[in-house]
Write a structure and sequence with these properties.
This protein is mainly alpha-helical. The chain has two domains: 22-60 and 201-402; 69-187, abc type-2 transporter like domain (abc type-2 transporter like fold, 3-Layer(aba) Sandwich). It is 66% helix and 5% strand. The protein contains 17 helices and four strands. The protein has helices spanning 2-13, 17-38, 40-60, 80-91, 104-112, 126-131, 147-175, 180-187, 204-234, 238-244, 249-278, 287-311, 315-332, 344-349, 354-367, 376-385, 393-402; strands spanning 69-75, 95-100, 118-122, 139-142. Helix 2 (17-38) packs across helix 11 and helix 12 packs across helix 13 (315-332). The longest helix has 31 residues, at 204-234.
């Protein structure tokens, strides 16, 4: 009887398999926390750099749109009509006429030197030809190497040229005895009433910061995930790391990445609270769907990082892969140039980037206020990204055990 009781007592004291897994996972996580605090690089890439980018991008575009973009004027007509056109152009909030040149060559050289973003050209005899209804021409040039500045100035100068044409035609109609109502009906038979949806302020910061900020965080996740695994190979500590995880690549990776996930998720919650709570950016479905999307986005980015270092299990090549893929994400995600206008091959490739799916979720949830069910394809895509490490677990484990780092 005593032997039976003693046997039961000893068997109940042994840890269960789940408890052993938990202990191993906790041990690997504690080891990773010690590594995080021992290297300032982790603090910089995981906390300082993202915080700096949050503040930098939001303060850079705090006015919503760029204002007082410098342009020049080439006024060869030099009449009250031409001077009035230039004054009205300078009155636009986004345009500032900072210089006047006597020839197109001088203005073009200034634009090539980067002193101005464009110039407005008024030829000699403009007012005289306008009075004679001879259809005078004005020209404007913009430097579209700077996409946003060039696009905004093109819009303002085109609008000014159309207004000048309308003003000249209105003067002729008045001279022929037309009333104001008749003249306006002739010049603008259809009045267009435009309303910008979801961002009526046309605030560029709303469009850009909501994707630039998580994009920077994604880039840091790529780099840190690859670095934290690649440095184990470089420093020849990978076998020790695996032994602590009971030689299981699953336990070892989960324990290593768990502290990273917590830190990056805190940074994700912070930028959501900063953008939607402090800056009051539109979030028509509430902030919780965006926080949930941020969590999936972080996990998908970590999985991509594991896949990158598994495909190229060297620190140098892995970091190159991560940086290249992360930088391309900003161009192909669609928040600066629409994906539908890209080549069909690039449209297909855009689905291989987690930032693309996060951007589409942001458009549906925060801007349009749709239900989460409308974005199910993008949520599934982020979940599929999390499956990528399963394709390279065997290769990565072999690299951790057998690979010898060659500088």
């Amino acid at each position: 009887m005593n032997k039976k009781l003693q046997y039961k007592k000893s068997s109940s004291s042994s840890p269960s398999p789940s408890e052993r897994v938990g202990e191993r996972l906790l041990a690997v996580s504690k080891r990773e926390c010690r590594r995080l605090v021992s290297r300032p690089l982790y603090l910089f890439c995981m906390v300082i750099a993202p915080l700096f980018c949050y503040i930098f991008f939001t303060t850079l575009m705090d006015s919503g749109l760029p204002t007082n973009l410098p342009i020049a004027a080439v006024d060869l007509d030099n009449t009250s009509t031409s001077r009035n056109i230039i004054q009205n152009l300078d009155a636009f909030s986004q345009t500032a006429v900072v210089q006047r040149y006597g020839s197109v060559d001088e203005a073009r050289n200034a634009m090539q030197r980067g002193e101005i973003y464009g110039f407005f050209y008024i030829p000699r005899g403009l007012s005289e030809e306008a009075q004679k209804q001879q259809q005078p021409k004005v020209s404007f040039y913009t430097n579209n190497s700077y996409l946003i500045a060039g696009s905004l100035l093109f819009r303002d100068m085109k609008m000014m040229s159309e207004l000048a044409s309308g003003a000249a035609a209105r003067t002729v109609l008045y001279a022929k005895g037309a009333t104001k109502a008749q003249a306006m009906a002739y010049l603008q038979p259809i009045v267009i009433d435009t309303h910008a949806l979801n961002n009526p302020w046309l605030n560029y910061s709303v469009y850009l910061c909501n994707t630039l900020v998580p994009g920077v965080l994604m880039l840091m996740i790529f780099m840190i995930t690859v670095y934290s695994i690649g440095v184990e190979i470089k420093d020849r500590t990978a076998r020790e790391w695996l032994r602590m995880g009971n030689n299981s690549i699953y336990i070892s990776l989960a324990g290593k990445l768990l502290p990273h996930t917590v830190i990056f998720f805190i940074m994700g919650i912070f930028y959501n609270a900063y953008l939607y709570g402090i800056l009051h950016f539109p979030h028509n479905s509430g902030i919780l769907p965006m926080i949930f999307a941020t969590l999936l986005f972080i996990l998908a980015s970590q999985a991509c990082g594991v896949f990158m270092v598994g495909v190229l299990p060297t620190l140098r090549l892995g970091l190159s892969f991560a940086s290249l893929w992360g930088v391309i994400s900003f161009s192909i995600s669609g928040f600066t140039f629409p994906v539908m206008a890209m080549h069909p091959t690039l449209q297909a490739l855009s689905n291989l980037f987690p930032l693309r799916h996060y951007f589409l979720i942001y458009v549906d949830q925060a801007l349009n206020g749709y239900d989460m069910a409308y974005s199910w394809v993008n949520y599934v895509a982020l979940l599929l990204f999390m499956m990528l490490p399963f394709l390279i677990f065997k290769r990565l484990k072999e690299a951790l055990i057998y690979y010898k780092y060659m500088p």
